[in-house]
Queue: 4 jobs
Job 1
Amino acid sequence: MSKVLTALTAALGDAVATDEATLTAHGRDYWARSELLDWLGEPHPLPLAVVTPKSSAEVAEAVRICRAHDTAVVTRGGGSGVCGGVLAGRDQVVLSTRGLTGLVKLDEHNLLATFGAGTMGIDAENAVAAEGFTIGNWPQSIALSTVGGWVATRASGQYSTAYGNTEDLLYDLEAVLPDGSLFRSRATPRAAAGPDLRQLLLGSEGTLGVITEVTFSLRLKAENAVRQAFHFADFAAGIEAMREVLRQGWRPPVVRLYDARESRRHFRETCPEGRAMLIFLHEGPGAQAEVEAQAVAELCAARGGEAADKQTVDDWFAHRNTVPSWRELFEQGLVVDTIEVATDWKRLNSLYEATLARFEAVPGLVAASAHSSHAYRSGANLYFTFALAPERESMVAAYDACWRGAMQAAAELGAGIAHHHGIGRVRRDWLATEIGDAGVDLLRSVKQALDPNDLMNPGVLIPR
Ligand SMILES: Cc1cc2nc3c(=O)[nH]c(=O)nc-3n(C[C@H](O)[C@H](O)[C@H](O)COP(=O)(O)OP(=O)(O)OC[C@H]3O[C@@H](n4cnc5c(N)ncnc54)[C@H](O)[C@@H]3O)c2cc1C
């Protein structure tokens, strides 16, 4: 047994696993490229061990032992990341946060709930829902991801337009830093006392420490909700309606615009061929939802939107978390993935067209489409789906070409390369196009200061 394994086992006992089934289940995340290589018969090697600590103290102990033995630590939550953020090497230890679960504290008076970082999103939401509250974060992967993973990747939920993204919902956090020390951010509703150190961990993807506890600022469950949808002549017309809704100050939790191709795919019954569907969910106390719905309906009608059957939004709710498995698609000869980016309103339609043009230039492309699912006062995201049917030996190259095309399109327009899935391995060499060389140097300096031997999730986030 290696020295690090001996030390980990002596300190943490049965929290350390080395059996093949556990190593296989924890070695990587949902990244389509990893899954594709696996399916093609080129699997990634298994990690050295999986450690599942049951307390922050045990996390600190595991991190200290790995550091003392110069062994890399790959933190894993639910493993639902889609960018290769979890891909542990042969000599690396996976630290699973799934031993840090449950509601630690509910403070109803202050609308605060603290969870172990390894609590699954849906369990966290259900725990507060039972008391009449909501976290308000509904990523499509809510049943597959942990609350710590949400913070580590800056995840976005389907209700973000009203309620915000993870960084807006996070009140405070606790983390074990790369030297094994315990950091707790301040717990105050707002501060003007220097930089906000939560931001170091938000989006850090396991490279700057292990998030062990997360506190969210809650909301009361909405009293009323109204669903409505409108279809537009094309995607650009839908973007304009969306922009106007946000510009006027309305904040429906759900604002989603689908291009004509996706509108046909998702709303065949209610969307006429060639039109772009825009759906809304309005929520709030008293008459707020009705008042907002009425105003939004008038704005949409004035911009050429035609009201669609209410069934449209019901259909979206019924299928909103359904996704096909990569493997089923590979079996059919298809390689599929999604890529989300963001930009301001002025460039949104150009980014849409430029990215689709890049996909269309990739040999083997059979379909490419997009929707926008998160809107802001000054811009929105685009969420692309591409499907390829290449020869077996070209599957990986075609996959890489689509990603390269999307990143190039974003870089050329000065758009954001990642709206919510994070950087992982798939985007890391594009980070400088968004934050510049000076930004990358700053990030490297922070990493060097906290983790001089690059032991926390090496190979992720920071460009080569
Ligand atoms: C079907 C599907 C739908 C999805 N829908 C959405 C969506 O709607 N919105 C969205 O934002 N994302 C979505 N994702 C992506 C993914 O679910 C999110 O990135 C999620 O936040 C990852 O959480 P996780 O617990 O699974 O993290 P993991 O996949 O385990 O890890 C992700 C990264 O975070 C790091 N990490 C995890 N936990 C910690 C921790 N406690 N401390 C430090 N680092 C940590 C890991 O090292 C890794 O780099 C989806 C994924 C799938 C498969």
Note: Residues 431-450 form the longest helix (20 residues).
Job 2
Amino acid sequence: MLRTPLCDVLGVDVPIICAPFGPWEEVGLAAAVCGAGGLGSLGTSARSLPELREQWSRLRELTDRPFAINHTVRPFDEEAFAATLGFRPAAVSFHLAVPGDLVKRAHDAGVLWIQQVMDVQQAEEAVAAGADVIIAQGGEAGGNGGWIGTMVLVPQVVDVAVDIPVVAAGGIADGRGLAAALALGAQGVNVGTRFLASEEMRIADAWKTRIVAADSADAVKVVNSARVMPPFSRPSRPNEPRSLRTDLVDALRDDPGGVDPAVMGPLVLEAVRAGEGHEFLPFAGQSVGLIHEIRPAAEIVRDLVAEAEAALTAAAGWIGS
Ligand SMILES: Cc1cc2nc3c(=O)[nH]c(=O)nc-3n(C[C@H](O)[C@H](O)[C@H](O)COP(=O)(O)O)c2cc1C
């Protein structure tokens, strides 16, 4: 069985993290990934504290394995963060900024800190802040992210992180991607888009179907997203979400002045809170081109590992041949 030191740090069997998906409900997905030996995650954006507490309790009822609760700065919610530490998940994961003060609070509460970074400067900040795990997220990723490719970013972050385990994210949807990440010096992967198109994920079927049908070129960076998305409440490194194209995505690119934030912002938020939003911003990464069917999460985890083992064995066969 494929195992790296990251597994011991996180208390999991396989070096696979299922990404947090902002406001979209993923309790069933996280439970399935935990059950398959990986690390499940729950997002926290745009949800009330009672809603979040209900999700956390439900996941804890479904699994006694470790999972992560995620926060970002788009926007940062102090009440939800304090409650997260009180709930004591195995780990907090964080994206879009490296908040040293929050890392310390998590550690004081006995909670691991998983820091997602988009460039080397952020990786250096994560090391200085005492992160326990650093996710190097390449620009191929779905959702908010930077522009540097995973292939280029991961080894640079590995060099900066030295003894801190690095996890690769962005564009990884099968075991070949996991094998490549390990070859770059990462100890695991954080997978988003592949798990969005899982049976357990609670987004609209139309969103999943689009992922399966899409070509990598259909997953584009959304320019001028600030016109319709929540603001950053703490300083953040530059980033831009990646999504499948829609009329809104095209309008934000071609005629941003024609998209009224006062009208579209609330519309998008309302749709997202209802578990939808695919008609506006169906976040997805370039790995859509690798995804050909909607599958149970446990099968996705199992195949990621089996395919990675096969890919690594095949590659090792080239040595000395
Ligand atoms: C729909 C969606 C929502 C996301 N929301 C978050 C989030 O709230 N917090 C976060 O840290 N990352 C978020 N991400 C990014 C993931 O953590 C991860 O970096 C990314 O999905 C990996 O790239 P991939 O989609 O190519 O697998 C999101 C990704 C997607 C697709």
Note: The two ends are 25 Å apart (CA to CA).
Job 3
Amino acid sequence: MKIIPGSHSLGATVTELDLSQPLTDTDHRLLVEALANRGVLRFPNQTLTARQQFDFSARFGTLEENVAGMFQEPGLPQVMVLSNIVRDGKPIGIADAGQSWHTDMSYSATVAYANVLYAIEIPQRAGRPLGSTQFADMVAAYETLPNEIKRRIAGRTATHDFAKFWDMMRRERGSARPALTDAQRNTKPPVSHPLVLVHPVSGQRALYANPGYAMWIDGMDRSESDELLAFLFQHQTESRFVFTFEWTRGDVLMWDNLRTIHQALADYRADEPRLIKRCQVMADRVLNQGRTDRHALAAV
Ligand SMILES: [Fe+2]
């Protein structure tokens, strides 16, 4: 296995590793370190069944089973289908997943650690890939915060709400997502997490806020919280922190949700098919050997 870092603070390419085969303990350890240090890992030229994608992903933590219960691989509800393809009048996947800055599952008591996506069909136009995924580096974003802001967010937590992103997509992006029912809202009550976390592998401090789900800073006057979050949202999405990943069919992409925020670019049409399968690794094992206590997310 070779790990080749790119020129941005995020991103490395991993070659000479066949993800359809069981991962050795040594390679597993090296990948955990590389993921923490580079945030985003690309494994080109892979050929995976859904089961093999599941097995690789599950080495890193418990896999989330999406509560919506839709667009899952038959028999493997932890493998979700992201796609704009419609077959026999029925969509085969979620068409507009992640099309605005967020980090996965910050609305959940047990947050997401890693995502593992496998590209089966990638739209192209004039030889250029469409539907790129952008990442922003939250270690760099924290390091470059003014000292006054670091002081104001030190020891603070923020409340995250699943409904914020969903409602925004419906209201501002014309999404075909149905309105969330009260029952669905009640299954995902808002949760609080530290605004600055210590990465469990690298020990680096990272800003843990995102425009998709962060609602307010707990225990702070609402107008001050709004003003401070607006500053953080603007700062953390500055282009100097952003790494844009262009997909190639056969890529497996793995990223660290504790180190990065991300968004999918919606620059392709309904008749330009995109098909990606996703596993979501929860942060239970990486935070504390299988404990699912959210307070294991170490705060600064
Ligand atoms: Fe996402």
Note: DSSP finds eight helices and 20 strands in the chain.
Job 4
Amino acid sequence: MDFGFSKEEERLRQEVREFCKKEVTPQLIEEDEREAGFGPYVWDFFRKLGARGWLTPDWPEEYGGLGSPYMDKFIIMDEVTRAVGGWRILLTVGASMVGPAILEYGNEEQRRRLLPPIARGEVEYTLGYTESQAGSDLASLELRAAGPAGEVFAEERDDYYLMNGRKIFNTAAHYAQFHWLGARTDWENPKKHQGISVFVVDLRSPGITICPMRTMSDLMTNEVIYEDVKVPKENLIGQKNRGFYQIMTALDYERVTPSGGLYHLFEEMLTYVKETEFNGKPLARDPIVRHRLAQLAIEISSARLLDWRVAWMINSGTVPNYQSAMSKAYSAELIQRIYNTWVDMMGLFGQLQPSSKWAPVNGRIERQHRRSVIESIYRGTNEIMRVIIAARGLGLPRE
Ligand SMILES: Cc1cc2nc3c(=O)[nH]c(=O)nc-3n(C[C@H](O)[C@H](O)[C@H](O)COP(=O)(O)OP(=O)(O)OC[C@H]3O[C@@H](n4cnc5c(N)ncnc54)[C@H](O)[C@@H]3O)c2cc1C
């Protein structure tokens, strides 16, 4: 069995590595890790990736891509996350999740209007799925989009949908320009998942209020409130009332997890144990530390294989399904194990926050350790990943 990359792919990897050496600065990494979202360094980096066609190399040229195979995109994401360490940069909502869904379900006008700005790195999207009563059970979402006259709302609305309701945990809403919004367009149908449609909404539309929600890790997410928001009908993506299936497709892409970021973390960890002494002895000589690092090395290699399988499937034209659920669940828990190990190795110092002068690695690990909790919650919880694997992967009866 040969898991190797072709010569062209290796050349591309090298080119991206060289690019990152030049463009990934400490300021960029700092900004990527901050809770506030994209700032000037990340936007600038994004546009540089966009100018090379590297945000969306697999898209057709007429929509801003390079017409390359998906594997090129995977290699670029892998190298960029390896260089940056990658939280937000990994989760480019427009280029990696929404764009593929627009390519698949949008009409020609929508593709030409919405895709090139994503490809150039000029705009970002935020995912508008979750509501207080609809998280894992996404089919219960209620945000209403009243379409043809005569339904819930009285005012005339020939060319727009009138939106009312609220979304929670919409992570990039405070710096993104567009909402990828799941809204209920049929509330009579008892099959809840058949009454949802997907819209692209300009977040500056009148009637939208964005309220910050702070999490235990300082990461900022948001509540987004819709009060009589008019959304042009041409922003309905795909077929009305078929949005649930489109969201499921976008989620399958969202769960692609390039393991480059894991290598970044692991390499930093190896440097830390080589450079840090405990009781007069380098940590790297401690048998327990060595054992735990060796275990993590095995697990990172396994994560890489799961991750390559998903990339290979997309590259061969198949939408991954339980395979991306496996990759997502495994890497989410692995990231948590990496940070747990790291904090354990730091002993009591591991609890010190960035404001303390005694905090090792500038307190970054303490913060990222808290942040790693969300890995098994967002992009679908790890329990839901196991529900998907059991039903679709193992063919077990649905609950
Ligand atoms: C920091 C953060 C950022 C987020 N960003 C976004 C975003 O940008 N956009 C967005 O739309 N959403 C976002 N989310 C929301 C996230 O996707 C949901 O929190 C997640 O899907 C879980 O939904 P819930 O919180 O309603 O929990 P619930 O669905 O109420 O689940 C509660 C618990 O029950 C378990 N559970 C539920 N159903 C089952 C089942 N059938 N079988 C087994 N166990 C089950 C869950 O695994 C979980 O442990 C974010 C969440 C967080 C914390």
Note: The chain has three domains: 7-90, 125-242, 255-393.
